[in-house]
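Hello,

Our lab assistant flagged a job as stuck in the queue for most of the afternoon. It eventually completed. Since we weren't sure the result was trustworthy after the delay, we are filing this so someone can double-check. Below is the sequence as submitted and the structure that was eventually returned. Let us know if re-running is recommended.
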Amino acid sequence: MGKLKISFSALFTLILLSAFAVIASAEEPFVPTPNNPAPGIHVGTIDNNGKEATHRTHGNFQNNTNSCANCHSTHQANGKSLVKFQDTESNLCMSCHDGTLGFYNVKKNSGAGVFNSTHDSASMHNVGSVAIDSAPGALTSNKEELQCSSCHNPHGSTNDRLLRTEVNGKVYSTAMLDLELVEDPAYAEFNASTGPTGLKIYQSKGPVFVNQNRADVPQRVYSNFCSTCHDDYLRSSGDQMVSGHYSHTTDSYRAGRNCASCHYAHGTDITLLKDTAGKTIADYVKGGWSQETAEAYMKDINEGGSALKKYTNATVCWTCHRVDPTPVPGGNYSGRPTR
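-- returned structure --
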């Protein structure tokens, strides 16, 4: 009997050790490779020219692509449009873009903002939970649910970041939407391994503002893009809205003013907000402030919330409008902000 108890004890210990080993293994960070750039994503490494180059997941597919199978299943799909992994479109996108890939994490601060509800002053485009016609300034009735593909085309686009050329049933512009993209230094080794035509991991610094060399790409194109849902917000200075109210100009490309001048497309939170000097919480903590003091300083206290703004409170106005340059105790109005 003693031997039997020892055997059971040993077996139980072995099971526990195995379980801990599995947990430890699961916690290991995913390391992207040219053949497997994300968990469960498998692509080839030889392009149409016989060169080594990692195939792309969205658009610009190689003639020997395997990318379709990453999102779709021919006979055993879990959702509409033969969606493979999840039952809704936004869930499908988030199965990778929630940080699982290790890059293009929409829950992490970027040039497009952040989808985050865990921090103060958080506000965002609530994909998968609101109707398109609930957008402020919407003039047309579209009861379809706002999804990632309302703004992005998962099969490719002529615009940066897969931005659609037709939104909410409207072709907003024939011009290109340019973003300031730079290769992510954190993935320098991966980018070097994918070849000249392969997948590259970029960081976005946000929209390219006034570009004197591209007369065919006026800044108004960004506001046109947003106004396909926020129809009544596409205004010049002094124009009266359909609602009877007046709105700040959003189409002055010569002055670099458009929706993206003041707002993030995905959303914002207290970690991303800036003050009129262009500083964030991290900047003030680095300068010696406590985290608690910096967060209290940066918190957006407006009743309506942070409204996807880039700047906290009314400093979104003050960054451009220097109404009173006279210094006051506790004030600091010198210099221009960094956008």
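-- support follow-up --
The delay was a queue issue, not a problem with the job. The result is valid. Residues 77 and 84 are 5 Å apart (CA to CA). The longest helix spans residues 2-26.
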